[in-house]
């Protein structure tokens, strides 16, 4: 399970060189918003070169309805990225169309069919928010849904997307929640968006811990310094693991019980499922280290 995805502008040799040492579970080479259109052809070549023989490296292409998207895919697919990050999706139809395009490219380049995964940024266009149920059963390639506040802000004409305390303003918190719920409905992971204030490690830690409690399984990063903070935040704490173990043990000791008491609190079946899930997750992140 990926805790951290570090964005790396694909036009920057310097950043690409640094990215591998950041400790991120995955990298996303960006060909979209962090790369100026005139250097995109060069960035495609750099991305494709970087990808050679690497694992856990994704590529963010341009929106599927742009001319750049086709050129992005042509350039990077032969180098077998782990997956493609699709920005500004209009609806799941864009992800399905992307998946079909990848089918062709995998076939052409002798890549195992279905190997290339997809993550969709599903809230960057306002109209997309009304179609999120479409991700249910859309494509086997879908690994997760993530969301973005910056493009959505521009689209709705907002000059801010957070309040003075740094909390999301309502429209953006709603987009975030809808992304989380759509991911749960589609049975894929929910990945929280970037925390743009990359010098504020304390604020990031608080935010990322909140994101995990809310149900997100990982988060996007924009700076190497954010990676360790995010990795820590998305790992269950020892206290949480112990609590989950007590719940599982209690149900094991009381087979057939629907509900039990623990430390003066009612624990029922949903808590058991939650505890099992947390332990499963803790096991995965441990294997990763
Ligand atoms: N990946 C890899 N290395 C990175 C990096 C990243 N995302 N961001 C910064 N670095 C490197 C810098 O190159 C620098 O290394 P150097 O001293 O060898 O040049 C070092 O980390 C420290 O960087 P710093 O000086 O603190 O930041 P900066 O001002 O150079 O860069 C940003 C700030 C925001 C421009 C940069 O972090 C960045 O490009 N982030 C990704 C942006 C992106 O992809 N956006 C799209 C998704 S929203
Ligand atoms: Mg963007």
Topology:
Blueprint: E1 4-9, H1 13-19, E2 26-30, H2 40-51, E3 57-60, H3 67-76, E4 83-86, H4 92-108, E5 117-121, E6 142-146, H5 150-156, H6 170-186, E7 189-192, H7 201-214, E8 218-221, H8 224-233, H9 238-253, E9 259-262, E10 265-268, H10 269-288
Parallel strand pairs: 1-2, 1-8, 2-3, 3-4, 4-5, 5-6, 6-7, 7-8
Antiparallel strand pairs: 9-10
Helix pairs in contact: 2-3, 7-8, 9-10
Describe the protein.
This protein has helices at 13-19, 40-51, 67-76, 92-108, 150-156, 170-186, 201-214, 224-233, 238-253, 269-288; strands at residues 4-9, 26-30, 57-60, 83-86, 117-121, 142-146, 189-192, 218-221, 259-262, 265-268. The chain is α/β, with parallel strands linked by helices and 289 residues long. It has 2 domains: 4-233, Alpha-Beta Barrel (TIM Barrel); 238-288, no CATH class. The strands form 2 sheets. It has an 8-stranded parallel beta barrel, surrounded by 6 helices. Helix 7 (201-214) links the parallel strand 7 and strand 8 (218-221). Helix 2 runs parallel beside helix 3, helix 7 (201-214) crosses helix 8 and helix 9 crosses helix 10 (269-288). The chain is globular and about 65 Å long. The N and C termini lie close together (11 Å). The structure holds coenzyme A and magnesium ion (MG). Coenzyme A (COA) is lined by residues 6-9, 14-15, 18-19, 30, 33-34, 194, 198, 222-224. Magnesium ion is lined by residues 33, 87, 148, 150-151.
């Amino acid at each position: 399970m990926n805790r951290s995805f570090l964005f790396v502008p694909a036009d920057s040799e310097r950043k690409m060189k640094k990215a591998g040492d950041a400790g991120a579970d995955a990298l996303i080479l960006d060909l979209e918003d962090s790369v100026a259109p005139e250097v995109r052809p060069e960035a495609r070549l750099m991305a494709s070169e970087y990808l050679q023989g690497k694992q856990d490296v994704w590529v963010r292409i341009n929106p599927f309805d742009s001319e750049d998207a086709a050129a992005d895919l042509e350039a990077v697919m032969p180098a077998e990225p782990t997956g493609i990050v699709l920005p500004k999706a209009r609806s799941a139809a864009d992800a399905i169309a992307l998946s079909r395009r990848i089918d062709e490219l995998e076939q052409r380049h002798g890549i195992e069919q279905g190997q290339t995964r997809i993550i969709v940024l599903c809230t960057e266009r306002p109209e997309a928010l009304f179609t999120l149920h479409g991700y249910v059963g859309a494509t086997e390639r879908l690994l997760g849904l993530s969301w973005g506040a910056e493009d959505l802000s521009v689209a709705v004409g907002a000059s801010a997307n957070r309040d003075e305390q740094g909390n999301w303003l309502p429209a953006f918190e709603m987009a975030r929640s809808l992304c989380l719920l759509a991911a749960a409905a589609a049975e894929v992971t929910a990945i929280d968006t970037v925390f743009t204030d990359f010098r504020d490690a304390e604020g990031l830690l608080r935010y990322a811990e909140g994101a995990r409690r809310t149900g997100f399984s990982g988060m996007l990063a924009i700076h190497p310094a954010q990676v360790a903070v995010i990795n820590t935040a998305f790992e269950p704490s020892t206290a949480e693991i112990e609590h989950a173990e007590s719940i599982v043990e209690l149900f094991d000791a009381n087979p057939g019980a629907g509900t039990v008491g623990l430390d003066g609190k009612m624990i029922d079946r949903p808590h058991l499922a939650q505890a099992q899930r947390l332990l499963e997750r803790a096991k995965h992140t441990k294997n990763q280290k």
